[in-house]
Amino acid sequence: MNRVATKEDGDGGRCQSGTKTRILDAAERIFTDKGFRGTSLRELTAEARVNIAAVNYHFGSKEALLQAVLERRLVPLKKVQRNRLEMIRKNAQAASVRPSVHGALHAFFGPMISLHDSGQAADGFIRFLGQSFSEQSDTISETFLRHIEPVQILLFDILAEALPHMSHDCLSWRLNFALGSMIHSMSMDHFPSLLPNMVPSISYATMTRCMLDFIAAGLEAPCAQYPSPG
Amino acid sequence: MNRVATKEDGDGGRCQSGTKTRILDAAERIFTDKGFRGTSLRELTAEARVNIAAVNYHFGSKEALLQAVLERRLVPLKKVQRNRLEMIRKNAQAASVRPSVHGALHAFFGPMISLHDSGQAADGFIRFLGQSFSEQSDTISETFLRHIEPVQILLFDILAEALPHMSHDCLSWRLNFALGSMIHSMSMDHFPSLLPNMVPSISYATMTRCMLDFIAAGLEAPCAQYPSPG
DNA sequence: GTCTATACGATGATAGAC
DNA sequence: GTCTATCATCGTATAGAC
Fold first, then answer.
1. What per-residue confidence (pLDDT) applies to A5?
2. How far apart, in whole angstroms, are the C-alpha atoms of residue A225 and residue B211?
3. What is the average pLDDT across B79-83?
4. C-alpha span between B154 and B168 (Å, rounded)
C-alpha cells in the first residue's frame, strides 16, 4: 500500500478511515468556540462521529489532541515565517543596508493574519492560537517553544540588526511586549469588549497594520532603562 | 457585637472563624501556581484546612471563589488607579495643559506593579491576574468588565485629551495592544522563556519602566490606518 | 450560622472483547 | 481499529451534627 502523503490528516498520509482528520477538525472547531477545558471528549467525539475512546487511541490523551491540533497549523505557518524572515535578511545583506523593523515585523506577523483571512478551514485558528497561549500546561508550552522559538530567535536577530544601538535585554523585553499585544488581540474576540464600545467589525488586515504601527514605534523608541548593551 | 471592619476577610468584618480568609488565601496561592482549572477543590480545601463543602457554602461555587479572590484585590486597586488618574486630569486642567501620555500610563499601570512589589500577601497576585484574564468564563469576564472598565474609560478619556489628533478608533485599538503587553508580561512568569534566554531576574519596577516606554511610544506614533476621527 | 460527612452526575482515561 | 464497560477523580449538592 503506497503512501499518499498528500492528505492533511496529521498522520503522514497513513490514515484510511479519516477518523483522525474528523477528530482534528471537530477539535479545532469546538476548542475555538468553547475553549480546551470547556470541551468534553464526549461532546467532541459526538461531533466528529467517532467513538469516545478514539481520541485516546489515536492521540493518547485530550492534551495530546490539543497539541496535534496546534501542530497541524503551526508547522506550515512557521515555515512561511522563516522563509519570509530569511528573505528580509538576505535582501538587506545584498543591498548592504540594515533590515527595516517594519519589514521584519510584517514577515513575522503577516502569515498569521493571512492564515486567518484565508477563508479556508484554518479560519478561526488564530483565535484558537491566542487562547492556547494561555493554557497552563507544560505540554502546550513545550509545543509553542519547539515551533515558535526558532522563528522568534530569527526575528530577534534581524531586529537586533535593524536596531544596532539597542541592548539585547531591552530588545528581549520589547519583543515580549510586542508578542503580548498580538496574542491579546488574537484572543480578544472572546473577551467581550473590554474597551468602551470598541469597533469589532473591522478586518484583521486593518487591525494588523494598526498593530504593526504600534509595535514598530514601541520597538524603535529610545530605551532609558538599558542604556548599555549586554 | 461590634463590627471590626479592619479584618481583610472579604466578609465586611463579619467573619469570626477565619474560614473564608483561609480559603481566599489558599486559593490565591494555589490558583497562581497551578491555575484555576488545574486546582481541585479537594486540594484547595486541604491546604486551607477546611472541609470540602466549605467553598460551596461560603462562596457558592468554585468559579464564585475565583471571583471573590479577584475582587478582594481588584477593588482597592481600582480605587488607587482612579484617584491617580483623576489627579492627573485635575493637575492638567489646573495648569491648562494637556495631560502627558506617560503620566496617564504611569497612573494606570503603576499601582499594579506596586501591588506586586509590595511584599505583602498580595505578592504574585499580578501573575494570577494575568492568568485570570484568559479564563473563558462569562463570570470572570463580567468581573473584569465591572471593575476595570470604568477605570479604563477614564484612562481612555485622558489619553484622548493627551492625543487630540488621534481618532478614537485608533486609540481604542492601541489601548488594547497596550493592555495585551501588560497582561502578557504579567503572566509570563509561568511561560518558561518564550524568548531566547531572556533575563528573568529583573525587578518588576524596571520592567514596568521599560514597558511604559514601549507603550507610550506606540500610543504616540502617527496613525496611518485611521486618518480621520470617528 | 458553621461545619461535616456523604452521595450524585459527569469527566478523562483505560482494559479487554471483537 | 473500533467498541463497550469500567475506573478514579472532579465539582457540586444536601442532610444533619454542633
1. 35
2. 10
3. 97
4. 14
pTM of the model: 0.88
- Counting Cα atoms < 13 Å in the Cβ hemisphere of B69 gives 30
To the nearest whole Å, the CA of A34 is away from the closest chain B CA by 8
CA distance B37 to B135: 9
Q: Residue A6 above 50 pLDDT? A: no
What is the distance in angstroms measured between the alpha-carbon CA of A18 and the sugar C1' of D1?
12
Give the three-state DSSP class for A98: coil
Any B CB within 8 A of A192 CB: yes
In the structure grid, which three cell numbers stand for residue A178, read together? 510586542
Residues packed against strand D, CB within 7 Å: A 14-17, 19, 50-54, 57-58; B 39-43, 52-53, 55-57, 60-63
Instruction: Give distance CA A50 / C1' D3 (Å).
Output: 10
Residue in A134, A192, A217 closest to B217 by CB: A217
Distances (CA, A) of A37 to A25, A31, A213, A229, B70: 17, 8, 35, 43, 21
B contacts of A129 (beta carbons < 8 Å): none
pLDDT at B227: 58
Dihedral sign for Cα B140, B141, B142, B143, please.
Answer: positive
Grid cell locating B133:
484574564
Distance separating alpha carbons of residues A139 and A89, to the nearest angstrom: 32
| Nearest CA distance, A93 vs chain B (angstrom) | 23
Q: How many residues are recorded in chain B? A: 230
Dist CA A145 CA A213 (whole Å): 26
∠ CA B117-B78-B190 to the nearest 5 degrees?
A: 45
Contact with chain B for residue A200, Cβ under 8 A = no
- Per-residue confidence (pLDDT) for residue B90, from 0 to 100: 98
Task: Please give the nucleotide, over all strands, whose C1' is closest to the CA of residue B14.
Answer: C1
Collapsed DSSP state (helix, strand, coil) of residue B228: coil
pLDDT digits (tens, 9 = 90+) for A26-85: 999 999 889 899 999 999 999 999 999 999 999 999 999 999 999 999 999 999 999 999
Question: B39 in the Ramachandran plot: left (φ > 0), alpha (ψ -120 to 50) or beta?
Answer: beta
Which nucleotides in chain C lie closer than 7 A to a protein CB?
2-7, 10-16
Share of chain A above pLDDT 70, in %: 80
Cα separation, A175 vs A170, whole angstroms: 9
Q: What is the mean pLDDT of residues A196-201?
A: 50
Q: Delineate the domains of chain B, giving CATH numbers in brackets.
A: 1-60 (1.10.10.60), 70-220 (1.10.357.10)
